[in-house]
């Protein structure tokens, strides 16, 4: 895949970039390794000062950052601006909490283990490679960079090939914020060159957010090298609606949960599973709202849904929809690409889906909702869990027993009751099953790239 900015709203190539040469790549890895030796000794206060300065820049430049994102991957300008501000919030969160999250953990009674002092201490690992996707081109990176840098690691970023300007902005913003040269570097390289970096002994760990095949490849190489990995992969999140739910609120949130980020979010609700008693009423409200959405230029303030980020991405969506329709599924709205330039695809609702259709099992990365009817809570859970993914999940019910059942039985990294799945710096984020492993955000996210060192200190005197 060429490294280029291609505007998905027009299909026009705005700018192309040369890949890093091998010598330049080696220089960058060497710099990361060298920088880490000194950066690891800096204190939380110094790191926090840099991080707050980077957050200030993100806030000040939110409009510029937003335009970059919208140009490169087509999210609406309003969504892009929110993403820039969310990055600043996440950076400040780790600037303020890193010292607390990584504080020593002393054993209250060290004599239990025959020591004078015994404790756990979190120490940084070294240069970490982050392989990142284009869908939240700033926020996905920040979820790694803010905690990793606050912990005393240094970062190397291999960003998706269609967001090079976002990738370069990120390197630039950390440099301008005062982080020493080499703390955070962008590598403009193709995915083929990831393996050599993972096998380089100077790079000690990796995190990947993206598709299952990419995650499998990185994990296999890191397994071979015995290097720690965090994987944030795909999702096909269920959104279950039960009779006690507020249907208007559920339908409005369902639309937002499906079409956010032009339908290209790992935690977008993708499968809507509705109790038979309210199926018709919910469907009417949901489909009406999906039809009302305005699809168009993501720079236009009235636009709800912009284009799909890549031509291939739209072709993948069409393939899944066409496969379902040819096997007998019913399209309630959308389902046909519009004429004209750009990679637009309309908000679409499909029902009558059976287990033999690809859409039953595969993730649709675009504004397409699959609608299922469930006879009762058991069937709703069965459909919800009939996927290899386990990222987010949503259930709408005001019945406390049902809420508890969903919390316990949904196979997912996150359960949101009467709401849509959202990532917050304050809450751990991650998946189960084939959605990946490890956790980002909250205290867990910063500890992923630390060595928890056990320290045992005796008195030095011979025991009598
Ligand atoms: P992708 O094709 O896997 O790309 C993600 C990143 O991996 C890009 O930087 C890509 O580089 C690189 N890559 C691709 N194949 C690779 C390989 N074999 N070895 C090493 N690196 C490789 O995914 P995408 O289409 O951009 O993103 C969509 C997917 O990401 C969806 O499945 C979505 O659900 C998932 N996602 C998950 C989360 C989460 O937090 N769980 C968040 C966002 C997205 P190139 O661009 O150069 O190919």
UniProtKB/TrEMBL annotation:
<keyword id="KW-0521">NADP</keyword>
<keyword id="KW-0560">Oxidoreductase</keyword>
<dbReference type="InterPro" id="IPR016161">
    <property type="entry name" value="Ald_DH/histidinol_DH"/>
</dbReference>
<dbReference type="GO" id="GO:0036243">
    <property type="term" value="F:succinate-semialdehyde dehydrogenase (NADP+) activity"/>
</dbReference>
<comment type="similarity">
    <text>Belongs to the aldehyde dehydrogenase family.</text>
</comment>
<dbReference type="InterPro" id="IPR044148">
    <property type="entry name" value="ALDH_GabD1-like"/>
</dbReference>
<dbReference type="InterPro" id="IPR015590">
    <property type="entry name" value="Aldehyde_DH_dom"/>
</dbReference>
<dbReference type="InterPro" id="IPR016163">
    <property type="entry name" value="Ald_DH_C"/>
</dbReference>
<dbReference type="InterPro" id="IPR047110">
    <property type="entry name" value="GABD/Sad-like"/>
</dbReference>
<dbReference type="GO" id="GO:0102810">
    <property type="term" value="F:glutarate-semialdehyde dehydrogenase (NADP+) activity"/>
</dbReference>
<protein>
    <submittedName>
        <fullName>Succinate-semialdehyde dehydrogenase/glutarate-semialdehyde dehydrogenase</fullName>
        <ecNumber>1.2.1.16</ecNumber>
        <ecNumber>1.2.1.20</ecNumber>
        <ecNumber>1.2.1.79</ecNumber>
    </submittedName>
</protein>
<feature type="domain" description="Aldehyde dehydrogenase">
    <location>
        <begin position="3"/>
        <end position="455"/>
    </location>
</feature>
<dbReference type="InterPro" id="IPR016160">
    <property type="entry name" value="Ald_DH_CS_CYS"/>
</dbReference>
<dbReference type="Pfam" id="PF00171">
    <property type="entry name" value="Aldedh"/>
</dbReference>
<dbReference type="InterPro" id="IPR016162">
    <property type="entry name" value="Ald_DH_N"/>
</dbReference>
